Structure formats: structure tokens, C-alpha cells
């Protein structure tokens, strides 16, 4: 049966056969159809160099096939085994402080280690060769949650090779890094060191004397781990044409997932929100992951059915949240809903991490019942949403380079964090019910009526020209403070701020003021007064219309928000760190011009999204994130795919607390 895949990470190698029997009984009860196996079996399948033993993994895969379940088969390289670190000490990482690690943990492999590169790819090759013909295997899972930087000599050598390829000459590198400052001009490639606590950083990872060096090392390390992924994928490809992925981590700063997108056959990610009120944040992360592959559906590879074990405090999901958040993933493009973990481990650091099957081995717990009920709902849904896409006319630009350079820069205010700004503008779009894509700055923007680019600190390539084209044909482009500041090398544009965005925005910024968060400058927007904090740019209109003004300090009465007519459209500029109400005021006016406010824009925490299936049918999801019920008018007639209830346009429907509607709208 074609349906949204349902299941998750399963580690039967930790258990005797009798437990396996019980597991599969419970999997049947919960409608579990897909298992991710073999994620951490390197020490089991490759117990010594040149020695391979697949007996246990054979039985795991064979049992899944016999039970009629699909397998997402991992290469097992998520953590290297003790013998590898003993035989090749250079395989372990050197940290930011310059300390060479010994064996331990999991993210402890140097991506530049020849031994790690060779032996991880060889294990991937053998796994693919052995299981390519298994009827159970539907996808390959490489590594696990890539992350963690290394600063060893091997990485230093690889960094210098990466720089040679990027810049070709030392003159070009010196120019990009602005090395005439502080007598840093390099005259030999060998003089270049990885930026760490022992070199350019004196107050931690975000404080660097030379942003260009640190920026390039962030890019290099992301590429180095991508090279590890590519090597394993190539080894798999020699034996199998099935799709290959790795589990990403949403808005994870160390790795630029846009640089990885072309190498992923499909995107997948692990969703572990920090609290029970992260629904907007999760929506942004889902949209970001979907945007990696141009809007293709993704897999929710991991989520907890109850609680995590990785934080100081690990709250339990309230009753109903598991169902609601799983449906939210489907609403934003998930074609798989999977858990970590299927059975709770008895020992080590994740023994208290939530699981479908707990230590008591019971099927009558609240968590298991919720998992089983959701499995039944997904079974009823069938293939209705598979391959469906989001018909977005709004794009939110997300840029790792801007994230990195904004947060490693000295000035104007280190309390301004890239994600905070992006989350604020996404939250306003989410509250307004706009269907949107989260896309890289290199994306084709021709299909969007509105482009929102918060804190677009770095402007690369022809982006400014493409944004102008959006406005010229009648669209709206919205950007904010600290945008248009630097080029691809993190060098300030030799022009007025906002650099190449100035013609579109119709302004210049001569000065900027930064204050601690307890300093508030009121901003007047129409008949409303909102608050702004942290950053206050002094905006000088150069053709732009003043929309909002500051209310305090020596720049009281000067522009804080502007709108500039450009072609048939507009460029909006927000020069102040507006509060949520202020951001919402601006965003809703931009959306209203294009008739893009959602049908429930005035109902807080009632989320609506649309997916369009391959046949053109619109499927509307309505998600009630409130702890109480809400009554809503039906936007368009159709059938709720979860209950077979028919709705008529305009009919009032009650949605329960944490309730979900999945309405296939009439054509």
C-alpha cells in the first residue's frame, strides 16, 4: 500500500531474539511499516580492519522483509569503532581549543583523516553490495546528523588545498581576507592556520580578528563533511540506484545545507523542538528542509514520541501534540513520519529518551496508544498526499553565509542573532496564513509575488538584480536592518548602505545605533505604536516613502520603515528591530497588496497550509495549536480525509484542542 511512511530508528542489535518477536507484534499494532536500521553498527559489522561480519544485520534486514516492512538501511558510519581510533589516532578530532580527542562520543571523526575516508567508504560499499538486492531496502542512510568541526593538522592541510582551489593565487586570497590589516599578509600557503582559539579567536568561536578567514573555514568544514557523504554515496552507487540521504538537523548553523542539497536524493531531517510552543519554529524548519530540493517532499527522519534526553530539562509532549506535530510535518511536505526511537535503550546516554516501546514493553501506555492511533490515521490517508507540493507565492530567503558573517562580526550589536530575525519575519508570515517556500539566495524567484529577506547581510552574485526583477514586474521585496552590508568575501561594499540593494529600497543608511535590550525606541506605524530594540538604523530616503518613524532619541521623527515604488512593485525596508506586533503590521500590508493573507489570518495559532497533489487536487490542512477548541468557517467545500466528513464552503466547524483537519477541496 502506498502511504506516508511510518516507523523510525530501530536498534535490535541491542536485544535478544525474543525481544525482536515482541517488537514486531507491537509494530503491527501501531501500523509501523518502515524501519531505519544499522545507524550505529560499525563496530558490529566491521570489528577489525579488513574483517566484516554481517550476520546480525542480515537477520535484522531479513526479519523486516519477512514481516513486510520497508528498511531505510544505514551504512553504519555515524560513529567510528574503538579499534579504528587505536589503529589510527589521527582519526579523532582536534577541538577549537587545540586538544586532540581520544576515542569516545560519536561526532568524533576528523573529516580529513585518510583512514576515516577510506574505511567509511569501504564499509558503505560492502553494505550496499550485500543488501542492494533486498526487497525490504527502499533507501540508504549515510552517516548520522553530520556535525562538529576539527582543527587538526590534517584539516589545516585540507583547508589550504581548498583555499588554493577557491582563490588560485595568494594575492586573491589576501585581497579577499583584507590581510593588510594587522600585518597578516600571507606570502606562502603554508603560513595559513585554521582559525581557532589558538590563532584568530580570543573570546570564543564567534569572536575573530579576521572574519574572512573564519568564514572560509566554516565553508570548508561544511564542504569537508559533504566530501565524506559523497564518498559513501559513490560507494553505494556502484551497487544500487535507490535514493540516498542523510538526516539533517533543520536550522543547524555549522553546516550549509544548501551546499549539500544537490547531493541528497531526498531531504530528511530530525525534529526536536525546544519546548511545547515551537509550532512556528517547526514550520520554518520544515519549509527550509523542503526548500532544499526545490519543493520536493521530504522525510521527517526522527522525532520523539514523548521526550528527549539531550537537554538539561526534557519536557514531555502533552497529550495530542505527537499527533498534531506529525500532521504539521505532513502539512509542510513530509512523505514520511518516523521516530527516534522504536524501543528504549537500557543503557548509555539515551536510555531515558522517549521511545515507541518503553522499558516496560507495554502496549497500553498513553504514548503507545497515541502512536498507534496516528498510524491508523496515516493508513486511512493512504497515498492522498504523496508527492504533493506547496503552491507558494511567497519566498523567504535563508542564507547560511549571512548567518555566519552576521554573527562573527564585531558590531554593531552581538545581541542581534540571525535566527531571531528570520524567525520573527517567518512567524508573521505563518500567523498570516501565507503558504511560503524557504529558499536559498540562488533560487529562481520568478514564481513569487513576495520575497522576504530578513537580515540579508551578504549580497552575492546577481541577487540584487533578481530582487529588482521581482519588484519591477509588480512584486514586493521586504528586507531589514543589517542587510546589503558585505560581499561574498565579507568585505563591506564601498558604497552607502544597503549596498546593491539601495536602488530597490530607495534609501541610504548613514548611521546606526545599537543598544541593550532594555532600551526601547517606539516606532509609529500608521495609527499604531510598536516597540523596537537592539538596532536602530538612521535611514535617509532617496525616493522612498516613509511608512514608520522613530519616537525617541535624537533621531525621533526620522524614518524607521520605508516603502519604495520600483517598477510595478515595491521595495520595503525595515531599519529597526521591531517587536512582533511591528513585524506583523509590515508583513500583513505586504501580503494584503497581493491578496495573500490566509483564510484564518485573524485566528492566532490556527495554522493552515495547502498541498497540491500530482493530479492538481488541493489538500488543505487546518491545525489547531491552541489548548482549547476553535470554531472556523470552512474555506472551501470538500471531504476531511481523516473522517470522511463532507464540509460545505462557509460552514462553521469546531476543531478540537490540538485538532487537525485534512480537507481534499472540491475542484
Assign an overall shape: globular
Low-confidence stretches: none
Q: In the CATH scheme, what's the topology name of the largest domain? A: TIM Barrel
Average pLDDT? 97
- The percent range for strand residues is 15-25%
Give the total of beta strands.
Answer: 27
CATH class of the largest domain: Alpha Beta
Oligomer: single chain
Domain count, please report it: 4
How far from one another are the termini?
26 Å
Quickly count the helices: 17
- Residues in helices, as a percent range: 25-40%
Largest sheet: 11 strands, mixed
- Nearest-angstrom radius of gyration? 26 Å
Structural class, by secondary structure, is alpha/beta
Can you tell me the CATH architecture of the largest domain? Answer: Alpha-Beta Barrel
What would CATH call the homologous superfamily of the largest domain?
Answer: Glycosidases
Domain Beta-galactosidase trimerisation: 392-596
Domain Glycoside hydrolase family 42 N-terminal: 9-381
EC number: 3.2.1.23
Pfam family, one: Glyco_hydro_42
Describe, in plain words, how this protein is organized in 3D.
With about 675 residues, the protein is α/β, with parallel strands linked by helices. The protein has 4 domains: about 5-150 and about 215-380, Glycosidases (TIM Barrel), CATH 3.20.20; about 155-200, no CATH class; about 395-595, Class I glutamine amidotransferase (GATase) domain (Rossmann fold, 3-Layer(aba) Sandwich), CATH 3.40.50; about 605-665, Immunoglobulin-like (Sandwich), CATH 2.60.40.1180. Helix content is about 30%, strand content about 20%. The protein has 17 helices and 27 strands. Strands 10, 11, 12, 13, 14, 15, 16, 17, 18, 19 and 20 form an 11-stranded mixed β-sheet that branches. It has a 9-stranded parallel β-sheet with strand order 5-4-3-2-1-9-8-7-6, covered by helices on one side. The protein has a 5-stranded antiparallel β-sheet with strand order 21-22-27-24-25, covered by helices on one side. Strand 6, helix 9 and strand 7 (about 270) form a beta-alpha-beta unit. The radius of gyration is 26 Å and the shape is globular. The two termini are about 25 Å apart. The model has no long low-confidence stretch (mean pLDDT about 95). Its EC number is 3.2.1.23. Belongs to the glycosyl hydrolase 42 family. This is Beta-galactosidase. GO terms for molecular function: beta-galactosidase activity; metal ion binding. InterPro entries: Beta_galactosidase_C, Beta_galactosidase_Trimer, Class_I_gatase-like, GH, Glyco_hydro_42, Glyco_hydro_42_N, Glyco_hydro_b.
